[in-house]
Amino acid sequence: MNTNRELNYRLFVQIEEDFKRTEIKSEFSRYDDIKNGDVEKVRENFEDIRINYYEGKGMLSDDLLRNTQYHFAIGTGIIARVCIDGGMKHNIAYTLSDIYIRKCDACHLPEEIVELTGEMMLDFAERMRDIRKADSISRHIRRTVDYIYENLGKPLTLKMAAEHEKLDQSYLSKLFAKEMHISFKAYILKAKITTAQNILIFSDFPISEIAVSLGFSSQSAFSAAFRKLTGMTPMSYRNSFGDTHSINLENN
After folding, report:
1. What are all long-range contacts of 132-135, with beta carbons under 8 Å and residues at least 24 apart?
2. How many Cβ atoms sit within 10 Å of the Cβ of residue 134?
3. CATH 1.10.10.60 holds for 139-241
4. Residue 198: closest CA among 186, 212, 214, 185
5. I need a surface site. Which of 61, 84, 105, 231 has the fewest CB within 10 A?
């Protein structure tokens, strides 16, 4: 397909309307703020974006809602790839991108998408900030954290983790507490509850199945642990924050 005629026409219209696209250097500077985990800068950037959301953006559709959705999807995809380049696991970045694009697809007003843009940017930035912090953690603790998440449904013990890392139990316990600022046992429970929160929000799996999959002895034991850490029952949490998207988000 030869697009030269339409291209020349569009370029002419842009000149007539004095339309200027956002400079790519400026655009990627904002992406870099997300990649670097500079949450405050991203929050500051969004205040400007909120006011001038369409400035420098092309018209991808004559329908304003669809046009806004297209721009959101493109921006979210780019941010996911930028964060992968910055160290975010690709399955986390792409699944998070999928979640937000689906949220965007469910929006009925352009203004909702503008606000969702800020939420998405801050979510990625906060996760990248945590990744930056994790870079200062020793390889033994990084591998232990990975080991925990890979075996959340199993009855993990400090002895098992120590044997996995070929370390003394006492040494691993002290090192873990020093670097993670939480005990090994408490971290496992927190990891299980955090994972449960994501499953409750982004899937319709029965609570009893979630409890079993995360290694709890019973649904009541799971509910008690969940309430202790979140102040809510699993069902109340799902009703308050869940949606209809059956998406399972892994933790970073």
Report:
1. 132/36, 132/37, 135/87
2. 15
3. yes
4. 214
5. 231
- With CA atoms as reference, report the closest residue to 33 among 132, 101, 110, 180: 132
Yes or no: say if 208 and 168 are a contact pair by the CB < 8 Å rule.
no
pLDDT, average across residues 83-105 = 90
Sorted by where each begins, the domain ranges of the chain are 4-134, 139-241
Alpha carbon distances (Å) from 42 to 9, 117, 184, 246? 36, 11, 33, 29
When comparing pLDDT for 53 and 12, which is higher? 53
Closest CA to 76 of 21, 120, 29: 120
Q: Is the pLDDT of residue 250 over 50?
A: no
In this prediction, residue 245 has a pLDDT band, given cuts at 50, 70 and 90, of very low
Which tokens hold the place of 63? Answer: 């329908």
Q: How far apart are CA 84 and CA 28, in angstroms?
A: 15
Six-digit token string for 211? 């409890």
pTM for the whole structure: 0.53
C-alpha triplet 100, 82, 129: angle, nearest 5°:
80
